[in-house]
Amino acid sequence: MLVSATTECLQQARKYKDELANKIFGIRAFRSGIQTQKQTIPLGKTQIVGFGYGAKVVNGKILDRICVRVYVREKLLNSDLSRWEKIPSEVNGLPTDVIKVGEILPMQHRTLCGVSVGHYQVTGGTLGCLVQCDRNQRYILSNNHVLAHINQANNGDAILEPSLLEGGDINHPIARLTDFEPIQWQGQSNTMDAAIAKLIEEQDVDTKICEVGYVQETPMLAEIERRVCKYGSTTGLTQGIVEGLSEDVFDIWYDNNRRASFQEQIAIRGVCSSFSEPGDSGSLIVDEETKQPIALLFAGSSDITFANPISPILQRFNVRILGQASEEN
Fold first, then answer.
1. Closest CA to 129 of 205, 236, 237, 238
2. Quick check: bond before 162 cis, omega within 30?
3. How many Å apart are CA 164 and CA 169, to the nearest integer?
């Protein structure tokens, strides 16, 4: 069966599709809200997601006949269908064919949080989460030493995904450095190792974190013995227990010559294994049960991980964490 998409063929297809739409919904075509004479049926509330005109397929085999194609999320029993979802067996003598397609999504690459990222001159760390400012712009949140090259970067510098060490391409950055909290040296104390970078294409990154899922948008305070989890680009999903709430760490080596001290940090010990390893820097740490954000991972050893409380970071950059609610809006 050879049928070409000529103008005459497409006009004929439109007549059949419009007739089917009229039979089912009492309209001539799909619109953003399906208008009938008596009611509005919002798209997303019906199993039907589209109409077509083409081959009839049975058990994966294309039959030598043309049909009106009806695309549905799920194939249900006739008794489970609403009145306007019952599909006639034919339209003006042309048979119909019901085709299950599930949810139809754009075939675009969309990165999840928790993956490898880094300034174009840095070996890399982890994309902690997405945050948003009052102007509705979306940013990557991670560490200064991941995104800002330990104070050495300039705003506008390229941020790669994956990081340079893992094959990132400087000609195709995912974000541009926007702001960072400088790390202080020579005995001055720090409270955070954090930076944000504005996404070049906002839809390139989903707010979901690998294997963690969507997080809540409202942070919570750390509690002793609270079970937490994170997803980092090195160790993946790990679980931990909060052991310390107000930790002052005096001697963190950032390179061969510079040490930094941090106050009021959170200490976490891994459950069954180390909670983090190099490359996990920047991971968002959340409550294991509620998925509320607690801290931003930045340093540690094989025994203990240290993290910045998340609320002061959000206040510093005047942003909020994006979760599932943001994806639905």
1. 205
2. yes
3. 7
Q: Which two tokens stand for residue 99?
A: 């085709």
- Please name the residues in contact with 77: beta carbons below 8 A apart, sequence gap of 6 or more: none
Helices (H) and strands (E) in the chain, counts: 4, 23
293 neighbors 286 (Cβ within 8 angstroms):
yes
The answer to whether the CB of 202 falls within 8 A of the CB of 175 is: no
Q: What is the pTM of this model?
A: 0.70
Q: Position of tokens 């050893």?
A: 301
pLDDT digits (tens, 9 = 90+) for 284-308: 999 999 999 999 999 998 899 999 9
Dist CA 297 CA 249 (whole Å): 14
Name the residue among 295, 185, 183 with its Cα closest to residue 247: 295
Task: Break the chain down into helix, strand, coil percent, rounded to 5.
Answer: 15, 40, 45
- Residue 146 to residue 124: CA distance in whole angstroms: 6
Closest CA to 275 of 310, 227, 308: 227
Which of 311, 328, 324 lies closest to 141 in space, CA to CA? 311
200 vs 77: which has the higher pLDDT: 200
Tens digit of pLDDT for each residue in 268-280? 999 989 999 999 9
Rounded to whole angstroms, the Cα distance separating 187 from 282 reads 23
Q: What is the dihedral of CA 221, 224, 226, 227, to 10 degrees?
A: 120
The dihedral region occupied by 264, where left means phi > 0, alpha psi between -120 and 50, and beta the remainder, is left
